[in-house]
Amino acid sequence: MTSVGRSLPHDSAQGHVTGEAHYVEDLPRYEGELWVDFVGAPITAGRITKLDLAEARNLPGVTAVLTHRDLPGVNHFGPIFADEPFLVEDQVQYLCQPVVVIAAESRAVARRARRLVRFVCEETKPLLTIEEALAANSFLGPDRRIERGHVAQSLADAPHTISGEFESGGQEQFYFESQASLAVPGEQGQIRVISSTQNPTETQAVVAEALGLRLHEVVCECKRMGGGFGGKETQSAIPAVMAALVALHTGRPARIVFSKHDDMLITGKRHACKTWYRVGFDDRGKILAASFDFVSNGGAFADLSTSVMERTMLHADNAYFLPTVSIRGRIARTNLPPNTAFRGFGGPQSVVVIENVLQEIAQTLGIDALDVRRINVYRDGDPDRNLTPYGQIVRDHVLAELFANLENSCDYRRRMKEISQFNAKSRTQVRGLALTAVKFGISFTTKFLNQGNALVNVYTDGSVQVSTGGTEMGQGLNTKIRQLVADEFGIGPEQVLLMSTSTEKNHNTSPTAASAGTDLNGAAAIAACQQIKERMADFAAELFADSQAGLVKAPDQVRFVEGHLWDLRIADPAHRIPFEAFCNQARRERVDLGARGFYATPGVDFNRETGRGNPFFYFTMGVAATEVVIDRFTGDLTLERVDLLMDVGQMINPGVDRGQVIGGLIQGIGWCTTEELRYDQTGRLLTTGPTTYKIPNVTDLPRTLNVAFLENPKHQVNVRLSKAVGEPPLLLGISAWAAVKHAMSQLNPDQIARLKLPATNEEILGCLTRLTADAGKDSPY
Amino acid sequence: MRNSLVFYINDSPHEIGDHRAGWTLAEYLRNTCHLMATKVVCAEGDCGSCTVLVGRMQTNCDELVYQPLDSCIVFLFQLDRTHVVTVEGLMHGDQLSPVQQAMVDCHGSQCGFCTPGFVAALHGLVEQHHAQCNGEATLADEELRYGLSGNLCRCTGYSQILEAGKSISLAQVPRLAEQFDQRPLLDALRSLPAEPVHLRCNGTPEEELSEVFLPRQLAEAVRFKTEHPDAKVVAGATDIGVQRNHGKFSPRVILSLSDLVDFDAITLDEEDHLHIGAGATWSEVLANVGDRLPEVRQILRRFGSPQIRNLATIGGNIVNASPIADSLPLLYVLDAQLELIGPSGSRTVAVDQFYLGYKQLELAADELLAAIHFALPRNDERLKLYKVSKRRDLDISTATAGFWFRLDGDVIASARFAAGGVGPTVVRLPLAEAFVVGKPFDDATLREAGRVARTEVRPITDVRSDAAYRAQLVENLFAKAFFELSPELATV
Question: What's the pTM?
Answer without folding.
Answer: 0.98
